[in-house]
TrEMBL record, chains A, B:
Transmembrane stretches, start-end: none
Chain positions covered by the region annotation Disordered: 181-210
PANTHER family in the cross-refs: HTH-TYPE TRANSCRIPTIONAL REGULATOR PKSA, HTH-TYPE TRANSCRIPTIONAL REGULATOR RUTR
InterPro entries membership: DNA-bd_HTH_TetR-type_CS, Homeodomain-like_sf, HTH-type_TetR-like_transc_reg, HTH_TetR, MftR_C
Source organism (scientific name): Streptomyces hintoniae
DNA bind region: 22-41
UniProt key word Zinc: no
Name of the molecule in the record: TetR family transcriptional regulator
Residue span(s) of domain HTH tetR-type: 1-59
């Protein structure tokens, strides 16, 4: 009955517009009473986002299960993917809703409130994990916001393309960007490399990176003290190799 | 008359509650007609946040004026301070509103929509600045979200302390955190150091940083290829010096 209500609602929203559709119209088309509608949805906005409560509960459970996870930043990135999965389950429906939400300010406000709840769930987890470190709540709030922004940037791109393309790959790329920026350690399967002696090099004006002669295993970075950190990091990042999709994006 | 309406509204909100106060009550206490209210505020929520439109216009003008600013990340951090200034202009009023907003879900939703507009203004500026680089919109959205989250983390801390303490210092610290994470170059007054030759050092298992003998000007970083970027960056960051308050917080 829940699915029938959602289907009837979207048919009417598309035919006559969101504002012009009443709850009475929806229940009439679905062939049920008003009370049935309110059993499933607190208000008309609710039928537009029928799966967010379930998704938020899933995300919270996933975070609770990672209370001792070694990498909290990775955990919140993985948690964000719960939302992606919900959208990707039904691309046609997600794309329809995206266009509807863009047109109706009330739905946009509703969606912002939902996004805020996801962000607070992620931040709450990180605040607990960072509780003993310096600036714990600040770091938690900033990382949670960055994860949500990255996820939604990728999700919106996919929705704008009418659900074409690989949503998972797009979101992976965006989340890797955040993991790199906030210092998430690499995946445990990355093999440790054995060190080899470096060769002295002459310090240039800008930071320079050179592979040591006699091996690919060692990277030497020479930088002036006071050099901009961002420039040094850029060089180190590209020299260390790793995922080229993640490198150079910040 | 605008100020009189705001003062009357808040007196009533505090005395009898936000929901229980009508626009008619407000105009009666202020001694004006309903039309005057709507000349200044589109709805009852508007009187709770009377300065956001002005503040948003100020922020947008500040961003527009920085279309060629050398450091876009710093520019958006400075732009965010426009909001802080508005709150700090009248601490007692800001604290009152904070407590009111926490209690009224409708006001919370309204505030989220306002925050979203600030965030889009910052992201829009960064998107233009990053248009030619890789992942321009992703970087822009993530940094804008991080700036807003850092600013609001500090702002909320100050509001929770009833407006005691130095709001500027708290927000400065939070924004520095974002500037560090997203690779903002150092302040222009930092003197450039002249390079001196480095001394070869033996590569250890973990990345190592050493000042060159014969001078404090050069930093040599040796890292295994495949080493975690976050660990290398941590070392580079502390070796390059700079603000100890910003270092080591991510």
């Amino acid at each position: 009955m829940r699915d029938a209500l959602v289907a009837a609602a979207f048919r009417l929203f598309l035919e006559r517009g969101y504002e012009q559709t009443t709850i009475d119209d929806i229940v009439a088309l679905a062939g049920v009473g008003r009370r049935s509608f309110f059993r499933y949805f607190p208000a008309k906005e609710g039928v537009v986002f029928p799966d967010h409560e379930r998704c938020l509960a899933e995300m919270t459970a996933f975070l609770d299960a990672g209370a001792r996870d070694a990498d909290p930043v990775r955990r919140v990135c993985d948690a964000a993917r719960t939302v992606l999965r919900m959208y990707a389950e039904n691309p046609a429906f997600s794309v329809q809703r995206y266009h509807l939400t863009k047109k109706v300010p009330g739905l946009r406000a509703y969606e912002l409130a939902v996004v805020w709840r996801y962000e607070r769930a992620l931040a709450g987890y990180l605040r607990t994990r960072f509780a003993d470190g310096p600036d714990g709540t600040l770091r938690a709030d900033v990382i949670a916001a960055a994860v949500v922004a990255a996820h939604n940037n990728a999700l919106r791109g996919w929705l704008r393309s009418d659900g074409e393309g690989d949503a998972n790959a797009t979101v992976d790329h965006a989340l890797r960007h955040v993991q790199t920026a906030f210092g998430s350690p690499p995946a445990p399967h990355e093999p440790p490399a054995s060190p080899a002696p470096p060769t002295p090099i002459t310090p240039p004006a800008a930071p320079a990176v050179a592979s040591a002669e006699g091996g690919q295993d060692v990277v030497v970075v020479v930088a002036r003290r006071g050099a901009p950190l961002w420039r040094v990091v850029q060089q180190v990042e590209s020299a260390l190799g790793g995922d080229p999709g993640a490198a150079g994006t910040w």
